[in-house]
Amino acid sequence: MTATAAEIPVHCLPIGVDWRPSPAVETKAPQSDHELMLAVRDGDLDCMGELFERHHGPLFGYLAKPTGNRTAAEDIAQVVFQRMLKYRHTYRDQGSFTAWMYHLARRCASDHFRKSAPAPISVDPSELEHHADESRGADESAASRDDHAVLQRALGRLDRDDREVLLLSRLQELSFAEVAGILECSVGAARVRAHRAMRALRDHYFRIQKEPLT
């Protein structure tokens, strides 16, 4: 049986030969979304599977929250990934994958609901309740179940554009630069729209609180 280097006395090892064990191979760091999409753009379509695993859940949530239609949200999400493959050549070297994905999602959702009746709005109030008002009293009030229902109604009274900018900037936690790219406006305009949407939500919230029970 041949002896290993570790079993041979040091003085018997050939001079000039590095007999030390090879260092462990370093684990390759996961590729970023941007790197994966560049690979997809260049023809490595298998990388789309990793992007799907990372982003299907958040994308589905973005599509389902403003509509309450989970079936439609799933259908639209599938279309979004199909369009990513179809239009992969349009992805830019310096682009933001997340912004590009939500830009496609916005267009796909618009195409879908243009062909069908609008679905009811369903947003989890707990995800936005701490944005309803900046005062301590409102924060404490929003903790009750009744105020959750009030917030739900307030969200329902927002127009589509206001709900969209809140979903992108608050729930999806995108930067205003990314929101601006999705909404096709300037960063300043995106900030103003988000601020106005939050004020509108707050106004509806307190107005509904004062309405008589029916």
Write up what this structure looks like.
With 214 residues, this protein is mainly α. It folds into two domains: 33-114, RNA polymerase sigma factor, region 2, helix turn helix motif (Rna Polymerase Sigma Factor, Chain: A); 125-210, Winged helix-like DNA-binding domain superfamily/Winged helix DNA-binding domain (Arc Repressor Mutant, subunit A, Orthogonal Bundle). 58% of the residues lie in helices and 0% in strands. It contains nine helices and no strands. It has helices at 33-41, 47-64, 70-86, 97-114, 136-141, 145-157, 160-171, 176-183, 187-210. Helix 8 packs across helix 9 (187-210). The longest helix is centred in the last third of the chain and has 24 residues, at 187-210. The termini are far apart. Residues 117-144 have low confidence and may be disordered.
